Amino acid sequence: MFDMMGIAAAAATEQPFHAMAAEKVTGAKESIVIVRNADRFASFCNDVIGDIAGIVSGTAAALVVTQLVDVFNTGRPTLSIVLTSIVAALTVGGKAFGKTLAMTKSTQIILFAGKLAFFVENKLNIRIFTFIKKEK
């Protein structure tokens, strides 16, 4: 998901969000901020969160494979190799699908991210975009 949002931020343009902001669409202003800071947003989403999620999922998959090998009492590495390959294929395929989707649906994805940022900042009172001055 985060890799998809990072790619979408890099692919999106500001114009649709300006039109949405003029119509008072929730999250449109935050979406403009995301697009204007696409380099930082993409770097955070892709490099920080995406890599952490990849490491955690790989470790979790290795633990599941270890448990399954113990359950089936097989000393052969075949089950381990097959299951690890399936997890790797799903991970790589999912990332490829997400990146393709991000390139074609970047406006919708960034609007969703903007709405999420709006909710976190206004409903939960947690500042995400600390470098932006709030209007009075």
Describe the structure.
Helix content is 77%, strand content 0%. It has 6 helices and no strands. Helix 1 runs parallel beside helix 5, helix 3 packs across helix 6 and helix 4 packs antiparallel against helix 5. The model has no long low-confidence stretch (mean pLDDT 85).
Helical residues, percent: over 70%
Proportion of beta-strand residues:
under 5%
Q: Which structural category fits the helices and strands?
A: mainly alpha
Mean pLDDT across residues: 85
Backbone CA Rg: 20 Å
Number of helices: 6
Q: Spans with pLDDT under 50 lasting ≥5 residues?
A: none
> Distance between the terminal alpha carbons, to the nearest Å?
33 Å
Main beta-sheet annotation? none
> Total strand count, please?
0
Instruction: Spell out the helices and strands N to C.
Output: HHHHHH
Shape, please?
elongated
Defining traits:
single chain; mainly alpha
Write the layout of secondary structure elements.
Elements: H1 2-11, H2 15-22, H3 28-36, H4 38-71, H5 78-104, H6 106-122
Helix pairs in contact: 1-4, 1-5, 1-6, 2-3, 3-6, 4-5
Summarize this, please?
This protein is mostly helical. It is 77% helix and 0% strand.
